[in-house]
Design a protein that fits this description.
Radius of gyration: 22 Å
Largest sheet: 16 strands, antiparallel, barrel
Oligomer: single chain
Number of strands: 16
Order of helices and strands: HHHEEEEEHEEEEEEEEEEE
CATH superfamily of the largest domain: Porin
Shape: globular
Number of domains: 2
Strand content: over 45%
CATH topology of the largest domain: Porin
Strand order of the largest sheet: 1-2-3-4-5-6-7-8-9-10-11-12-13-14-15-16
Length: 376
């Protein structure tokens, strides 16, 4: 692993030096075009969370950042099997070290690459390009992506409001989340509020839902996302998503997700976030069809400039087919700065037919370098 890290950083240093050399040779026309793009696309960039290209040699240098997430953990019974970026054992856990490389490639596309370093492996979490100037409010994204199924699935560890993912997300999407190779087409409707419709076409390799042995079996997604400014301080986001594909029995799996997110932010010292997602899965097998559902709901309250507290509840078994489990997770976070935080959390898990579980975590997250803006 040390050798892999060294190679990656040597490559990054070489790319940076080469970009700087090329930037010095660029003529003024390129800079002029970049400035025009920045002026004409400012509002679109704000809506779709794009960065404005920089000028001169600097515009060719990507934003590079390193984000580390570590957690001390206690489990009454250690989890069995792969746990993704969630704490996996009693003791010390490296959840991930994320290397982010982000840049506007030219006036047509931007690129984002996120590489995860774990204790025993290195993986590409996301690597995709996004178009910047298609007509008719269209946008295309292609590459390795976390599919926009609900809110939490698209978030990285440093964006989580809790130390771990909700148990509901892990059950329906897998511990690694629903990440796929594919392409997405989004259209932004000309409405007074933010309204975006996304269609996705993916390889369909998620082991918990698709993973058909046939190379021709893909996964297809539809997502409608809406955001409303209710007041100057209050915003509401509502999303509906459906994704379907062939599972490992060569039959159809359909997964539907509804998410609601409410944020109240009157000032920088106070804020409230409420987030809920409901999942329903219909999995057809050789003989039976299994229909199962579940939800999680979480509330996070910032009561001081550097402090926030939260509570999350998970419920599996709505409808009653499939797994049945309930959990409650209180947490407390110290926001030392924009680049460093400490978080403590406790999970009480009630498993139907099993032993109740007690879990406790202490997490630290730090950020070196710039990091691109994330969606609301």
């Amino acid at each position: 692993m040390k050798r892999i890290v060294s190679v990656i950083f040597l490559i990054l240093m070489s790319v940076t030096a080469l970009a700087a050399d090329k930037g010095a040779q660029k003529n003024d026309s390129v800079v002029s075009e970049t400035a025009k793009l920045a002026d004409s696309s400012q509002e679109d960039a704000k809506l779709l969370f794009w960065k404005v290209p920089r000028k001169g040699a600097a515009r060719l240098l990507p934003d590079i950042s390193l984000i580390g997430s570590f957690a001390g953990a206690y489990f009454r019974d250690d989890p069995v099997g792969e746990q993704g970026e969630n704490p996996s054992r009693t003791g010390f856990n490296l959840q991930s070290i994320e290397l982010a490389i982000q840049a506007v490639v030219d006036s047509y596309v931007r690129g984002d690459i996120f590489i995860l370093f774990k204790e025993d492996e290195v993986e590409i979490e996301e690597a995709f390009i996004t178009t910047l100037g298609l007509p008719a409010n269209l946008q295309v994204r292609a590459g390795i992506m976390l599919a926009p199924v609900g809110r939490l699935n698209s978030q990285h560890v440093e964006q989580w409001d809790f130390v771990d993912q909700s148990f509901t997300n892990r059950y329906f999407l897998g511990v690694e989340g629903l990440g796929e190779i594919g392409a997405e087409l989004s259209v932004l409707f000309p409405t007074p509020w933010f309204s975006e419709l996304t269609f996705g076409w993916y390889q369909g390799s998620n082991e918990d839902n698709f993973n058909s042995s046939s190379k021709a079996d893909f996964a297809y997604l539809g997502k409608w996302n809406n955001f409303f400014d209710l007041t100057e301080d209050l915003g509401l986001q509502i999303g509906l998503a459906g994704i379907l594909g062939m599972n490992d029995t060569q039959n159809l799996t359909q997964l539907y997700v509804a998410d609601v997110f409410l944020r109240w932010r009157p000032n920088e010292r106070t804020g409230l976030k409420w987030q809920t997602e409901y999942f329903m899965r219909r999995r057809k097998e050789a003989v039976n069809t299994l229909v199962e559902g579940g939800l999680y709901s979480q509330l996070v309250y910032q009561f001081a400039r550097r402090w926030e507290a939260g509570l999350r509840a998970d419920l599996l078994g709505l409808p009653s087919e499939g797994a049945k489990q309930q959990s409650v997770s209180p947490m407390l976070t110290f926001l030392a700065s924009e680049y460093f935080r400490l978080r403590t959390q406790y999970n009480y898990v009630n498993v139907s037919g099993g032993r109740n579980q007690h879990q406790a975590f202490l997490q630290l997250v730090f950020n070196l370098g710039p990091h691109g803006a994330h969606k609301f």
